[in-house]
Amino acid sequence: xxxxxxxxxxxxxxxxxxxxxxxxxxxxxxxxxxxxxxxxxxxxxxxxxxxxxxxxxxxxxxxxxxxxxxxxxxxxxxxxxxxxxxxxxxxxxxxxxxxxxxxxxxxxxxxxxxxxxxxxxxxxxxxxxxxxxxxxxxxxxxxxxxxxxxxxxxxxxxxxxxxxxxxxxxxxxxxxxxxxxxxxxxxxxxxxxxxxxxxxxxxxxxxxxxxxxxxxxxxxxxxxxxxxxxxxxxxxxxxxxxxxxxxxxxxxxxxxxxxxxxxxxxxxxxxxxxxxxxxxxxxxxxxxxxxx
Length: 292
Prior knowledge:
- By secondary structure, the protein is an alpha+beta fold.
- The chain has helices at residues 2-15, 28-36, 104-109, 112-128, 134-137; strands at 20-25, 47-52, 66-70, 141-161, 166-171, 174-178, 185-186, 192-201, 211-219, 227-234, 237-244, 254-263, 269-272, 287-288.
- The chain has five helices and 14 strands.
């Protein structure tokens, strides 16, 4: 259960556009390794691991955005079945008894040499890893659909520029919008789950034109009744929806409505159920059922 909570926390930070750096010590390395086993390899690029006195070899460490380790000479972990040999010394490791070398604070952080080494590892991790959502996290509006079953789900956003009286539709085939680009774009247009897709408007609040947004999800392959979690972030406001999708339909799938949004000219966004925007399904048709 604790591993699951840790994994969820890691995934939430990644989905929020953050880098994740894990500093694990001793048995905590087992905990970190297990948590990361449930993270998509695509998302592991945003994760860095500092393994201190690790008894486990992190067999998937090649998938991480960054991995470095530190085990002091004479650390008691070396008397077990160590995953790695010693690769560091500090002010006490060469002279203290073996049993005295292991504590994270006493043996590693409180000694200048190893403390500086860990600091350098942290700086290297921060420089090495990246999160493709990092730029998007600074945007004013982001809509994310996430599903947990094997199969394909597509996020669909209809847009309307109220002042210009123009409309556009953003979905997998036209991630920048069709017949023209108006507001945002879709980050991952061919994501097969479990996975997520996000629609992003990079304009800040004071630059966002008055508009209307219609949010739908297409079920193209996950079982009927499966959950799709949709999160809408607008500035500091967050709305969360759980959609129970209908059975997948032919061609482009079946559709479930999530919500509508209205944006005033000052960037204020509110929920709405009556956007004056005609939504055209992709060629091939859809079966419009489902709901929140």
